Amino acid sequence: MSTKESSDPVFLQNEVSATEPIETVQIDKCSVTMLGTAHVSKASADKVQELIATGKYDAIAVELCPSRHKAIVNPDAMAKMDLFQVIKNGQASMVAASLALGAFQQRMAEQFDIEPGAEMRVAIKDAQAAQLPVILIDREIGITLKRIYHNVPWWKRMGLFGGLIHSVVSKEKVSAEEIEKLKEGDVLESTFSQFAEDEKDLFKPLISERDEYMSARLIKESNANNYQHILAIVGAGHMSGIQRIITHQQVNDPDETISKLEAQPVSSSWLRYLPWAIVLLILTGFAFGFMRSPEIGTAMILDWILINGGLSALGAAMAFAHPLTVITAFLAAPLTSLNPTIGAGMVVAAAETYLRKPKVEDFERLRSDTTSLKGWWNNQVTRILLIFILSTMGSAIGTYVAGFRIFERLSG
């Protein structure tokens, strides 16, 4: 086989074995061999071990982000999580989503009798044993989840959330057809596969953006470190995208591409002002109510407190919050809803954390407890996350319901 030496990435060969496809692309003087793995296949893990053992590679690239890599090399890291800081920093929803994805992995492990991502574990272990650098080429999972959420129209987000929860807690066995899909993707694609098939707004941040991101990371690392031969271990479903991007030189500046794809999604300018506009309308409604009569104004305020506080308290109660936490939700939601900088869920979850601080064993049981709906309620860590989510949703719904009730009184 002849190669062409130039400064341009050039596609060299395409070999496909019975189960693990192998493709090689050239980036300047660096040859990148991509092994397409099935994340539920022991054969993939064996193939990784076999290739690293050849000694042909001077670096191993893996389809992992720093968070997922940390979870592999330090599985007890979650037990050291500062839950109060998670809530304070507004990361509760992202942590809950990450735990849900981890629970999906655990369910796959139970059905296939193999730890999903075993090939990544083998790659890290064998690379370290061979004293080879491990390159993390995937985008941070939290950023991907945020970009997925941002890319989905707001009216579809509840369906997305519901689908994720169903995929986590469902006790149905994965069908033969779904198993074939699992062999071509990773845990993110597997979890969202039912949506990614039909929704182009999910395909972009979930698959195509990550293809571009991993391509840029491979180009950057190969150029910066003068590697001669990199073994890149990626889900088989990413291979064609990475191959196309590198072959057709679709990444002109890897640093710029990485920066662009790591950018946190920003809401439209008018959406940022929407919460303040709603607050202004509510306060204006109160003012007009008292101008018409003290009785109407007082009734409006009572509606606001009972509806907003009541629905937030109901959300907390549905998550089996401490009675004092439920009372906190009732009292806090009507006030926090008038201040968009502070969410009701943050106050309520912080109260629950203070009243019933999670124990060490709660963190230790996270992996097993999150695989069932009952476990999410029984484990104090996940219960606090549920309290945050449900009390926030209750307050948000209450804001709109109470708002309509207020203007109904004005028009009556």
Account of the protein in words:
- The protein is an alpha/beta fold and 412 residues long.
- It has 20 helices and 6 strands.
- Strand 2 and strand 3 form a beta hairpin.
- Helix 15 runs antiparallel to helix 16.
- The radius of gyration is 25 Å and the shape is elongated.
- The N terminus is likely disordered.
Q: What would the average pLDDT be, to the nearest integer?
A: 80
Distance between the termini: 83 Å
How many DSSP-defined strands? 6
Give the overall shape: elongated
Pick out the low-confidence regions: 1-18
What is the structure about, briefly put?
The chain is of the alpha/beta class and 412 residues long. Helix content is 65%, strand content 9%.
What are the salient characteristics of this protein?
412 residues; alpha/beta; 6 strands
Protein topology:
Blueprint: E1 10-16, E2 21-27, E3 30-37, H1 42-53, E4 59-62, H2 66-73, H3 83-88, H4 92-112, H5 118-129, E5 134-136, H6 141-151, H7 157-169, H8 176-182, H9 187-196, H10 200-225, E6 229-235, H11 239-247, H12 254-262, H13 269-292, H14 294-318, H15 323-336, H16 344-355, H17 360-364, H18 366-369, H19 373-378, H20 380-411
Parallel strand pairs: 3-6, 4-5, 4-6
Antiparallel strand pairs: 1-2, 2-3
